[in-house]
Specification:
Layout: E1 2-5, H1 10-19, E2 23-24, E3 26-31, E4 37-42, E5 49-53, H2 59-74, E6 79-84, H3 103-113, E7 117-121, E8 137-140, H4 143-152, E9 157-160, H5 166-176, E10 179-182, E11 184-187, E12 193-196, E13 206-214, H6 218-229, E14 234-242, H7 248-255, E15 258-262, E16 270-272, H8 275-283
Parallel strand pairs: 1-2, 1-5, 5-6, 6-7, 7-8, 9-10, 9-13, 13-14, 14-15, 15-16
Antiparallel strand pairs: 3-4, 11-12
Helix pairs in contact: 1-8, 4-5, 6-7
The structure holds ribose-5-phosphate.
């Protein structure tokens, strides 16, 4: 098995290569003067099982993924398994007006046209997986790894910022060995959320707010306000995908004591690796 790691997922691809006892393909990625992407996979993949790993966000990384898949397909591999640790556009999973695409579906269609199997991690909406309708596709959960990490940080309560993700918080809390609860969130616009006050017994305890994505940080900032008001001893913001749009990082640092994410998007907060879970999923087919 050979692993082709794109520039958005180099560290994770390296970890996956080790876990799968695979060969790391040499991949060159550069930019032309007009900023178009150039890729070259320097490996002989004829007849090989190939795993291509590349997060599909932001747009430049989606183009790079397309180019990598094309390069690999041309080398006549026996199969291409595409691992997209963070599937961008998954929040655009519905059409609201005539003439709009379903952007998540558009991405799924492009990826599956060049792949034999597909894996992603903590996809924003489960329904997105149904658009991979011509190849086996699996959503891998990062909740166990997140739970193990938070247990090591001494977390005593796991909170979801809204009821919709309470099941996720419960899965994480089960691994930590503590209780899970949820806050009541209403989204007002892309940058603003409102949290309805909720009575929580949090005075003096270490709380983790666990979400799938942190984008603007607005959700976590509002949740933290409420937790500080309730006397929490410390607040950890934890997500699978650290998108961190605009000034999210300073905003989060003001609001919380710690900020952590997984390596589905590689950045300085990537404290948890999803490599082992993804490797297990690939091994189990
Ligand atoms: C929403 O459904 C997601 O689960 C996250 O809560 C959301 O994407 C967070 O966005 P932001 O950081 O901009 O509040």
């Amino acid at each position: 098995m050979h692993v082709v790691g794109g520039s958005a997922s180099r560290t994770l691809a390296g970890e996956l290569t080790k876990s799968l006892e695979a060969v790391a393909s040499s991949v060159e990625v550069t930019r032309f003067p007009d900023d178009e992407c150039y890729v070259r996979v320097d490996d002989n993949l004829d007849g090989e099982e190939v795993v291509v790993v590349q997060t599909a966000w932001p747009d430049t990384n989606i183009i790079e993924l397309m180019l990598l898949l094309d390069a690999v397909r041309e080398m006549n591999p026996s199969s291409i398994t595409t691992v997209v640790p963070y599937l961008g556009y998954a929040r655009q999973d519905k059409k609201f007006k005539d003439g709009e695409p379903v952007s998540a579906r558009a991405l799924a269609r492009i990826i599956q046209s060049q792949s034999d199997k597909f894996f992603t991690v903590d996809v924003h909406a489960a329904s997105v997986m149904s658009w991979f309708d011509r190849i086996p596709a699996k959503n891998v959960s990062a909740h166990s790894e997140i739970g193990r990490f938070l247990k090591g940080r001494g977390v005593e309560l796991v909170l979801s910022p809204d009821e919709g993700r309470w099941e996720n918080a419960k899965e994480v809390a089960d691994v930590v060995g503590c209780q899970a609860d949820f806050l009541v969130k209403e989204r007002l616009d892309g940058e603003t959320v409102r949290m309805t006050p909720k009575s929580l017994d949090i005075a003096g305890i270490k709380v983790a707010i666990v979400d799938d994505i942190i984008s603007t940080g607005g959700t976590i900032a509002k949740a933290s306000e409420q937790l500080r008001g309730g006397g929490a001893a410390s607040i950890i913001a934890m997500c699978t995908h650290g998108v961190y749009a605009g000034n999210a990082i300073p905003r989060l640092k003001d609001a919380c004591d710690e900020v952590h994410s997984t390596d589905t998007i590689e950045n300085p907060t990537s404290s948890v690796s999803v490599a082992q879970e993804v490797a297990n999923a690939i091994r189990n087919g």
